[in-house]
Fold this sequence. Notes:
The complex is a heterodimer.
Chain A lengths: L5 E10 L2 E11 L4 E5 L6 H8 L5 E8 L2 E2 L8 H4 L1 E4 L11 H8 L6 H14 L1 H5 L10 H13 L5 E5 L7 H16 L4 E4 L3 H7 L2 E6 L2 E7 H6 L1 H7 L7
Helix pairs in contact in A: 3-6, 6-7
Chain B lengths: L2 H20 L2 H27 L7 H16 L4 H23 L4 H21 L1 H4 L5 E2 L8 H24 L1 H11 L1 H6 L4 H27 L1 E2 L1 H4 L2 H14 L6 H19 L4 H15 L5 H9 L2 H7 L2
Antiparallel strand pairs in B: 1-2
Helix pairs in contact in B: 1-7, 2-7, 2-10, 2-12, 2-13, 3-4, 3-5, 3-10, 4-10, 7-8, 7-10, 8-10, 12-13, 13-14
Amino acid sequence: MTEPLLAIRGLETAYGAVQVLFGVELDVHPGEIVAVIGPNGAGKSTVIKTVIGLARSSKGSIRFAGEEISRMAPHRIPALGIGYVPQGRIVFARMTVEDNLEMGAFLIGERARRRRAVDAVFAQFPRLHERRAQLAGSLSGGEQQMLAIGRALMLDPRLVILDEPSLGLSPKYVDLIFEQLVDLKRQGRTLLMVEQNAARALELADRGYALELGRNRYSDSGAALLANPEVRRMYLGGAGRA
Amino acid sequence: MSVRQLAVAAALVAAAAALPLVASEYHQSFMLQLFMMVALAQAWNLISGMTGYVSFGHAAFFGIGAYAGALLLQYGFPWWLAVVKGALIAAAVSAPIGLLTLRLRGPYFAIAMLGLNEVARIVATLWVDLTRGGSGISLSPALLPGLSVNYYTMLLLAIAATALVAWIHRGRFGLELRAIREDEGAAEMVGVNTVRNKLSAFVLSAAIPGAVGAVFVMYTSYLNPSSAFAASLNIQMIVMVMFGGTGTVWGPVLGAGIVMLVREFLWAQFPALHLALLGAMLLVVVLFLPGGVMSVFARRKRMRPEVITRESR
């Protein structure tokens, strides 16, 4: 077994007086796709927010590539090699598509390298190339999500964290986004995703973690979780696909 | 900046530099005040236009620079050192203030800055030992440089402020500030150190009015709390930037130029009504050109998308 790229141990996080996480454990190994599933309020997004520094843990550790990162300010996280796709497709609405992508790599001082990174993302998302001079706010929801993913890839991160990538998208775009994630998997990217569409997420994921009220409930391979009748009943809304 | 823009800028600077050779003192005074407003508008543009943190109290830094300049001149410092120190003192005061106020967002920041200007005025009024309070400081003409020195210094400040904004606008720092303006949370997520960037912009935007204030006092030779910390100065900075185009390089220059010229004209033609007419004109611009006069140019460009992508780098 390889050393985990991301290792979360005994993580506890609270917003003010309200504790949300009660000792969550989670590993992501290089090259794997890990899905975190669970109902509203299970603490899925909080796990991610704590990793990238938007929420502060009170206990436990988060190690990325062997380095403790749980006390790090959010703006220092991208330089470590973690790309983040926020929930709700947060793009810079009044900047062009191209500028949004450049924003994702602004840590690179050298202009030519930034341009190469933009071109690499355009190669992967031709649709973004078509719309490169358009303001990001004028894109459709799915295109904005693509842009958010593209922006997170700009620094060629070792780990991409996605918070609810399919939330609020039309079915057509949900398919499209999941196809993009399959593509990323094929390229050998390491992904950690939180997803309400648990069935789709588990189909894609190598491994999954099912959370319940801020604690680990089940963790297994994606296929095994999908096949587990308990998981199906609790997380997949009965037998059918969510 | 494109070659054409550089050419226009060079022509403007050359015309302004040559003006004292031909113009009367009245016209030179008018131009000096115009340069002053360009520099102040650019300072406001730097923090409020570029980061979206709207300040209603930037006159505070103007006043601090003016008082610093007046006192230093009285202590016998050469005028240029008084100007430099005016900028440095205003910047030094702004750092701790920015650290506190830049935590506030939207209207709260605006109100905090408005409060700062009021507090500064009250301090200047009550600290009689230093400022002579409400009776103000009169500087002996022997201490002051002539009109042409003031003219060229103010011109230099207007150029420096515009160049600073242009340089920030096209560089990485500008991209970071724009990202903060668009979405501060998202900016942080892509690695922008929002606290440091906001504070840098704020301190720079305080240094400019600091220097301008020191030159202003050399020009008027008299300073009191209500001329140093004038609420109307705050309003003028904001109005000129909005008129020209918030967050752009040329908007504040254009805005200051048009507003000053029109005001001068209206004042001469309609002494009683000139402010009302100016107000009506501003209303029209805000209603029909929310991006300021500059948006007319931007709109024309938008029809040629390739041009935008090339030039906006």
